[in-house]
Design a protein that fits this description.
The protein is α/β, with parallel strands linked by helices. The protein is built from 12 helices and 18 strands. The chain has an 8-stranded mixed β-sheet with strand order 3-4-2-1-7-8-11-12. Strands 15-14-13-16-17-18 form a 6-stranded parallel β-sheet, with helices on both faces. Strands 5-6 form a two-stranded antiparallel sheet.
Length: about 375
Amino acid sequence: MKIVMLSPYFYPHTGGTEKYVRDLSTVLVQQGHSVTVITNNLPKAKNAPAHETLPEGIKVIRLDAVDLFGYLPVSNQFSPKLLDGFDIVHVHVPAFSFLRSVAGKIKQPLVVTYHCDVTISEKYFGVPVPSWSVPLFEGGNNVYARALLGKADAVYNTTETYAETSPVLKHLPRRSIPIGYFYDKVDETQKKLGLTPDKKDPRQLLFLGRLAGNKGCDYLVKAMPRVLEKFPGAKLIICGDGEEKAHILDLVTRFGIGPSITFLGTATFEQLVELYYTSLAYVFPSINRLEAFGIVQLEAMANYTAVIASDIPGPNAVMEPGQSGLLVPKQDPEALAGAINSLLADPERARAMGRRGRQLVETKYNWRTIVKQVEAIYEEVLAKKKA
């Protein structure tokens, strides 16, 4: 089968959607399919050619484009004629520029992965967003998204809890297929570094992600004084960078907890594996619908690490609450501190959660299982087109 993926951003740009598209394309190639990704060359990357074949066998076509407002890529190089010869057109949204260009305009079956609702964060660079502007922007976008998605032959997202609460998806026929994770590289790195799942620092906590308003790292920092009251030896490693860093640093200074917080910025894959393996728990305090799944939860579980996550649609369906991690109300530092303290008080429970999380990754989130669900959609829409 010849499949073309249309993704607003792709490698070398990094992010959850980009990782998903590359991993899904990789496993499809492993299944014997031909996969081409058409994307925008944004941000303009040095040494990123217009045409390239990645080591995984994925063909990539990068189009010159401009990025409006930071996340609205537009290219005048795209044409539906680029899709000639492909059996399946698979579009990833948001953003919607590619979907707008093909919905109702192509002869091939159109499959859409809906990664998340377009949501306005409560603040940017620590500055609150005017509340009146949020429903206007989000409401208009939701109407637009429903109209475009209604023209697709199949739509799927990554969790049912997200779909059933989405102002877009809940009105449309859809299904849910989880994201997978390749854990082989984790195991190779773990052996190379001599790490073992049970040799964790019983006082080390980890946050790993972009320091953006929707990630909720500031709520984790606000929880730390309560954690340190009970466990003075606890330490939090914050690995990542972003526009909220100055605000988070200000909170650390204001609370006087600097000696217990370590900022690492970005890290190599080897460093990430070591951080996960040595941390008792990974904390995932995201706050809004821009977080529709949380691949980092899979990363943590693949590395035998318990997860403490916000109880929000999408992320709350990834790990098993009470078995491989804990759920807490979003934007609630006191509840977050309580969950953290419960694991610091019982490190063996946290280790058991880490082992259960790894089992989930090997079964429910194994790409070799998940790809069969995607292939079934392809075969279904092809059969309908031919009927």
